[in-house]
Amino acid sequence: MGRRVRIWDPRRRALLAARWNEDPDRQDLTWWAGYFDYVARSPFLTGGAEPTHGRPPFRCDLEWLVRPQNFAKVYEGKYHNRG
What we know:
Elements: H1 10-22, H2 29-40, H3 62-66, H4 68-75
């Protein structure tokens, strides 16, 4: 899974609050549980994908997941294999 949050600062709190407030459907912990379950099924987001170009595997963290540009990509399925 992703990296554990150790510091919950105002910037991170604001990013999560913005995603929460953008859509009434997201103002529910059940919605977020489903989102994080979806993230957990992505080998790329959780460090399980084969690394490329000698880099270590990518592992997301909460701040990365709730940044507007990343949130949209995750939500739209960019990091999940389709088949």
